[in-house]
Structure formats: C-alpha cells, structure tokens
Amino acid sequence: MAEAIQKKLQAELEKYQQLQKDVSKSMSARQKLEAQLTENNIVKEELALLDIQNTVYKLIGPVLVRQDLDEAKATVSKRLEYINGEIQRYETLLKEMERKSEQHREVLSSLQQEYQRAQGQAVGKV
Amino acid sequence: MASVHDQMAAAGKVKRSKDLPQGVERLKEEHRKVVKDCRSQIEHWKKVENDYESLQDRLRTLPDKLSYDIMVPFGPLAFMPGKLVHTNELTVLLGDNWFAKCSAKQADALVEHRKKHVKNTLDDLQKVMKNFQNRADFTDDLEKLTGDTGDFVDIREEVINEEEVTKGKHRLAHKGNSKPKQEYLLELEGDKKKEGDEERTTGVLSEEELWARLDELERQEELQDERYRYTRLDSTDTNGEDTTSSSEEEKEADGGSDVQVNGHQKENGWVPPSITSQMNGTNGSHPEDEEEEDCDEEAGNGLPTIYFSHTAEFKKVRINTGKNTTLKFSERNEQKAQAKRKKKSGKSNGHSPHESYKITSPADIYRVFVDLVNGEPIPRKSILKSRSRENSVCSDTSESSTADFEERRAAFGRSWSHDDATHSDTSDGVTEEESPTGKSPRTNGRFEAFTGTVIEKDPLPCSIPHLTIAPPALPTIPERKLEEVGPEATQEPPKRMSKFKATRLHQK
C-alpha cells in the first residue's frame, strides 16, 4: 500500500518538475522578449530624433542595407506590435502552466499526506 | 525513506521552535541577496553611464579637425599608423541591427537620450535596493522583538471589569474598511486568548496597536508592490527559488510553512498577508483562526512586560461633535449621567462642577468651565468666548425667555428625537448636536426677535468629510455613538435638547 503510494508520489513529482521546467523556459523567453521590447522602443525614439537627411541602414547578415527613414520607422513599429503580441501569448501560456502546476501541487500534497498516513499505519502495525 | 519521513513527522513539533530562527535567517539571506544583486546592477549601469559620458566628450572634440593621425588597431595584436577622416560623419547603432548616419551633434543628442534611459534604470534600482534594505531592517527589528534583545517592552494593564473594556460590543469597522478591521478583531481576540488570565490594556493600547498595524500593513503593501515589480524583472531567479522553497516545504511536514507564518504572528500578533504569500509560494490559504490556535500552543510572549494600573476612568475617545468642540467620550457620558442625576435628585447646579474640578486632561477644562444655565451644565463652545457671549445675549438669560426655552424643548423634543434617529441612520459622522443645529436656525425665527451674530457652519459638509476620512480616523466612534444615541434618544430627548440647544440659543 505504501509502496504504491510512493510510486504515485514519484510519478506526480516528476510531472510537476517537468511543468516547472516549462514554466521557467517560457519565463526566460518572455524576458528576452521584454528586453527586445525596450530596445525597439529606444530605436523608435531615436529614429524620431533623426531627420530625413540621415541615411538609415539595416544590418542583414554581414551587409548594411540602406533603408528609408519612414520605412525604417514603420518596420520598427510593426516589430514592436509583433513583440507585444508575443508577450501576450506567453503571458497566457504562463498563466495556464501556473494553474496546472498549482493543480499538480495540490495532488502532490494530498498524495504526500496519504503516504504519511500509510507510513504511520505501517509503523503502528510494526 | 520511510524512517526519515517518520522522524520528520514525529519531530514536527520540535522542528517548529527551531524553524523560527531558521526562517528569519533565510528571510534575511534572501534580502541580502537581493540587495547585493541590486548593488552589482547599479554598479554596472553606473559604468555604462560613465562610458556614455566619455563618448560624449569625444564626440564634442572630434569634429574639431578635418582628419586625425592615429594608430589604427590592426588585428588584436598590432597597430598601424593611419588617418581618421570624415570626422563629422558617424554611423550610429540605434539598436536591433539598425544603423544611422549622423553628424557628431546628432550623435550627441542620441547619446543624451540614451543616458536618460540609463538614469531611469538606475533610479529604479536604487529604489528597489532601498526597499529591500528597509525590509531587512524590519526583519531585524522583528527578530529583536521576539528575542527580547531590543528595547521593546510590553506594557500591560490588568483590567478587572471586562465590560468596561469592550463596552459590551465589539468594535465594528467603518463602512469602507470592514475587512481589515475584522482582521484586527480576530488578531486582538487571538492575543487575548494568548494572554490567558491577564487581560490586555484598555482600548488605548489596542488603538495604538491598530495604528501601528495600519502603518505596517501600508508599508508592507508598498514593499510588496516593489517586490512584485522586482520579481517581474528578475523573475526566473526568484520564481525558481519560490518553487524550490515551496516544493521543499511540501516535502517537509506541512506544519513547516505554518511555522514561518506563526513566527511572524507570535512576534507581533498580526499576520502580514503580503509577506506570507510570497514566502510560502501559494500556500497562503491558511485561515487565521488556525494560526491563532497554533500560537496558543507555543510558548507565551517572551517580551519584558510592565504592569501598571489605570485609574478608574472611562475610555477616552475623541469625537468631533461638529461644533468645534471635541468632547471626550467620557465627558459626554459624565455629562449625561450628571444631567440624569440632577433631573432625578433635583439638585442645584453648584454641586456637579465641584466634583469635576479635577483637571487631568485638556478636555477636563471643557467639563469644568460649563455654563451654568437653568440648572444644567452646558459645555461652552469656547472658554474665551462664552463670557462675552453671555453678556451680549443677556436677553436670553432672563427669566422670561427661559419659559420659552422650556416650551421649545418640549415642543422639539418629540420631533427632534425622530429626526435624530433618522440622522444617525443616514450618516455616520452626524452627531446629535448637528441635528438640532439643523433644526434650530429654521425654527428660531419664530421665537426670537433677533438673528444671532454667530453663523454656524452647515453641519452637512462637516459630516461628509468626516465620512471620507473615516479610514484613518479612529474607528468605531460613530458606531459606538450610534448605539449610545439609540437607546438614549428615546429615554431623554428633552435632556439633550436642553444642553446643547440652549447653548446655541445662548450664543445666538
């Protein structure tokens, strides 16, 4: 009886740990996105400081490709929107995973209690 | 594995007493870590700022010459003489693989703009560091509090009559803040249970505790917001820690997480919900009752205590009676009691002032310096003013007008008591004086020949701000007043009228 519970406990624990890893992965991805968000915001502001006379280049691989200022501004704005959307997606994902990990935690605690009770019984019997 | 669990289950109780200092240690560790992180980040950003400063200097001097003779780095190990040309044309990296050709001055502007960002980040970090520093200090204080090593002293007064302490009914919160006040209620009760035979001091001390707790909770909330922000910035580390901590706690006995909370509670007798929710992951759904009971099991308060006994005085609570007089609660009771006594015994006025000549607090002055009018002690609006008022309103003090007074009192008594009831129902801060205030100017025109020199404040605006500032104001006063007003309104409406209405008529 105790053995079975122990096995179940192990299995649950592993699932929970897996979930935690996923949570941390999405968390780090989200942080990266946030860094990109701030960077693109700065780029947008600095592009606003320039005038049409300055030539804007984009680094694509080893090449600096010439861009139009307005085009560059539009591109950066689009990228900002994209990043925001990604962040939202990750947010919902994270919430979902958080909820699932909460459930797993509860299951784990209940299993643990059962296990302890079983342990106590076993000791009592002995 | 079984034996380990067994031991842990058996040693659960023993663990609790050890867990407290461990918990505090751990908390301090975390605080120190955060503060260290903040420091290192601040250093990093300061370096960045310095780099930008030197860059700006270079930019300003660069366009001075058309070309410079320099040693050009040639690979990682060699230099080679060369020239720096087009000194005003710079290709600036804007971020995210975007470049722009700018002049030196434009580049200067860009650098300035970036420095602003760096400054903002630095400020945020400073704030976070300061907050966590405060938290660490707070936990230190907390530790001292429990460890009897600090200057904290528990002052207790043994109260004989429990009825006096609670006045029969527990305090209810103002409308807006009922939830937190109930928490305090629970905690205070828990403390009372904790003390066992000895009872805590009267409402004076518990009020101060409430204030202190309010302040603490406010601070906690601010810190929690900072912490929340910080964890969002740096969430992998802290989340990982939280999860590991919570999983550890799960593996341990369940009481472990309780203990941390209990530790806090035992120290101060209150639960900071914000901190517990952070420290215990999502474990924070323990009802407070449980924790109270757990507190009971543990050892009693280890603080040094001072016992002192209070003189048998009523609880002093300050009330804004809406007439620029803040009577103390006891005074009003005493006045009512005196008025009652006088009515029953028919004694003259001269008796009571002698009784109350002991001036122990500023409010006693108001009690002593009362107008002696028609056998009733009426509190004066102001000690300085009333004498001249009396002289100017000599017609009112004449014998002929007193009869009118009596009539008025009787006439208003019935309608006024009804009004008073409605007033007290509808608004919290309205005191009994305010309702007659509202009525008498209207009706005075009928009876009096002259309009008074005093223009009283409109009572309603008084009450409304009173309502809005209810949260920080002393709790329970309106409710207590209401309950006192309720039973007594029916009993002696003419009595109240005579006291305060007469004063006003006097002053008019």
UniProtKB/TrEMBL annotation, chain A:
It comes from Sinocyclocheilus grahami. Belongs to the prefoldin subunit beta family. Binds specifically to cytosolic chaperonin (c-CPN) and transfers target proteins to it. Binds to nascent polypeptide chain and promotes folding in an environment in which there are many competing pathways for nonnative proteins. Keywords: Chaperone, Coiled coil. This is Prefoldin subunit 6. CDD domains: Prefoldin_6 (cd23161). Residues 2-36, 80-121 form a coiled coil. GO terms for cellular component: cytoplasm; prefoldin complex. GO terms for biological process: chaperone-mediated protein complex assembly; protein folding. Heterohexamer of two PFD-alpha type and four PFD-beta type subunits. Component of the PAQosome complex which is responsible for the biogenesis of several protein complexes and which consists of R2TP complex members RUVBL1, RUVBL2, RPAP3 and PIH1D1, URI complex members PFDN2, PFDN6, PDRG1, UXT and URI1 as well as ASDURF, POLR2E and DNAAF10/WDR92. One of its GO terms (molecular function) is unfolded protein binding. InterPro entries: PFD_beta-like, Prefoldin.
